[in-house]
Amino acid sequence: MIRKTTLIIVALLVSLALSARNYPKREMRAVWIATVANIDWPSKPGLSVNMQKEEMIELLDLTREYHLNTVIFQVRPATDAFFPSDMEPWSQWLTGEQGKAPDPFYDPLQFAIDECRKRGLELHLWLNPYRAVVDTAKASIAENHPINQHPEWFVTYGKARYFNPGLPETRNHVAAVVADLLRRYDVDALHFDDYFYPYRIAGQEFPDQDAFEKYPRGFSPDQKEDWRRDNVDLIIKQLHDTIKAVRPTVAFGISPFGVWRNQSDDPRGSATKAGQTNYDDLYANILRWQQEGWIDYVTPQLYWHIGKEVADYAILADWWSKNALGCRLYIGQAFYRINRKAKDRQWRSSRQIIKQIQLNRTIPNIDGSMFFSAKSLRSNPLKLKDKLLRGPFRYEALPPVNQRVQQITSGVPQNTQMEVKDNTIHLSWNPGRNNRAFVIYKFKKGKPANTENPENIFLITGEHECTIKISRETNPDKYYFVILALSPTNMESVPQFF
Q1: What is the pTM of this model?
Q2: For position 443, what pLDDT does the model report?
Q3: Is 417:497 a contact under the CB 8 Å cutoff?
Q4: Which residue, among 229, 231, 280, 285, has the nearest Cα to 256 in the 3D structure?
Q5: With contact defined as beta carbons under 8 Å apart, do 89 and 98 qualify?
Q6: 237 close to 281: Cβ distance less than 8 angstroms
Q7: Which helix (H) or strand (E) holds 497?
Q8: What is the mean pLDDT of the chain?
Q9: pLDDT digit string (tens) for 432-443?
């Protein structure tokens, strides 16, 4: 009966969303670019620098074509680096050999930042806190990898190697990497996914007993699981403090597994039957981080369909909404599941994603989506792009303002110029103070410049000029253009007219 009622409510809410044509002006629309095992980029290790750049440009162009506004770029998948670092080696998934720099030399992270800025895209740095070696049998491990410099910091669990979360050296090293990144690179957020303590392996205990005995911090032998949660709390708090000290305008986001706890284990939990959970298995007490203000946004990975018996997307989206605790809430959604041969029939159409986005817009506190992963932008599974652009992503949207970070106001663009020549309109301007991106709006002459309606967004760019072909939709005799600037924290300036 409960499940039937849930589906009826979902159908009603989706119907209301469709009838209201709910197009928000502010909405997180992000895509993960995974580098571990070459999931998204580069397509394989050892590509030429030019090919790497071409592939990144293709993904960023597709990001804009899908009307997304944010990229989450994995730059430290396994205690390695997609940027020059004195603390960790170059990634094997970049050049094919860990520790080997690209030749000719370039900085992939800076390249991604520059290309995102040209397109007016936000960039979040995606790091993994504890994973050091994904597969000990296959890994390329450089001499200067921390695992060779400080083997006492690491443990083996299954086929992988991890920093020991119980050691203060682990927390200090990860915080130092983060501080170094934030001092050198102009980025918008720091992002961790769901890999804290690793997912449990049946019959194997995580080997942290020595660390527990050395650093018990007042926890008794029967409180080892609480001690593990405290280990993760400590690194999250230290990273929060590091970010706020080095670059307080940068957001700190976590994308956890989709279930905090099952209701059967905790009355505060969700009406789910997940086999593993954040709190009980990954030792990640997400709700505490939100409540304490240690993180600025949370993106639970709800990679299930609406109505799934053990983990219903609709039930979980509602649960996270009720447990946002003042934190920006975005939902992690599964582009990758869309497949004509999917086991669950709900994923045999891209319509499932459309329904989820429409549902999100009816639930309080949900401020957008993050999609896994970027290679789906290339494959466009079951005409996903067409359905998004005809439906919920018909219009562009600006990223939300995150009030948990220190805000930067935006000055107005300067010297706006408009030239009509050779069947084109050329718009140009000079950046003002604290301008990261620019939003150009188009209005019918005689109508007021309503910049709150996303239907009026014509272009989002990081460039200082654009050329528009004159058509029935851009005729300067019928339309006029206005520009506003976005600050690094997404605050809009006052408008300037062309």
Answers
A1: 0.95
A2: 98
A3: no
A4: 285
A5: yes
A6: no
A7: strand 496-497
A8: 95
A9: 999 999 999 999
Cis, peptide link before residue 448, omega less than 30° from 0:
no
223 to each of 25, 89, 201, 283, how far by Cα in Å? 47, 37, 21, 13
The total of other beta-carbon atoms located within 10 Å of residue 117's CB is 17
Q: Report helix angle 2-20 to 351-360, nearest 10.
A: 80
Measure Cα distances from 120 to 245, 275, 485 in Å. 26, 40, 10
Neighbour tally for 22: CB within 10 Å: 13
Asked if residue 51 lies in contact with residue 483, where contact means CB atoms within 8 angstroms, the answer is no
Q: What is the pLDDT of residues 282-329, one digit of tens each?
A: 999 999 999 999 999 999 999 999 999 999 999 999 999 999 999 999
The dihedral through the CA atoms of 214, 218, 220, 226 has a sign that is negative
Sheet holding 131-133, edge to edge: 131-133, 160-163, 154-157
SS3 content of the chain, % helix, strand, coil (to 5): 35, 20, 45
DSSP type of residue 280: I
Query: What ranges make up the beta strands (E) of 344-404?
Result: 366-372
Contact 394, 66 (CB under 8 A): no
How confident is the model at residue 222, as a pLDDT? 97
pLDDT of amino acid 140: 86
Residue 251 tokens, joined = 């957001």
Dihedral sign for Cα atoms in the order 224, 225, 226, 229: positive
Structure tokens at 43: 């397509």
| Rounded Cα gap, residues 252 and 405, in angstroms | 9
CA 39 to chain centre: 16
CA distance 276 to 162: 19
Amino acid at 382: L
What pLDDT shows up at residue 3?
A: 53
495 exposure class (CB count in 10 Å sphere: 0-12, 13-18, 19+): middle
Amino acid at 460: I
Token output for 361: 């817009």
The span from the CA of 381 to the CA of 365, in Å, is 29
pLDDT at residue 292, rounded to an integer: 98
Q: How far is it, in rounded angstroms, from Cα 418 to Cα 289? A: 49
- CA-CA-CA-CA torsion sign (276, 277, 279, 284): positive
Compute the radius of gyration of the chain from its Cα atoms: 23
Backbone angles phi, psi at 2, to 5 degrees: -60, -45
Residue 163: is it exposed, middle or buried by C-beta count within 10 angstroms (0-12/13-18/19+)? buried
For the stretch 313-324, what's the b/e string if a residue is b when 16 or more beta carbons lie within 10 angstroms of its beta carbon? bbbbbbbbeebb
Minimal CA–CA distance to 339: which of 388, 302, 383?
383
Amino acid making up residue 412: V
CA 422 to chain centre: 42
Render pLDDT for 11-46 as a digit per residue (tens, 0 to 9).
Answer: 544 444 443 358 999 999 999 999 999 999 999 999
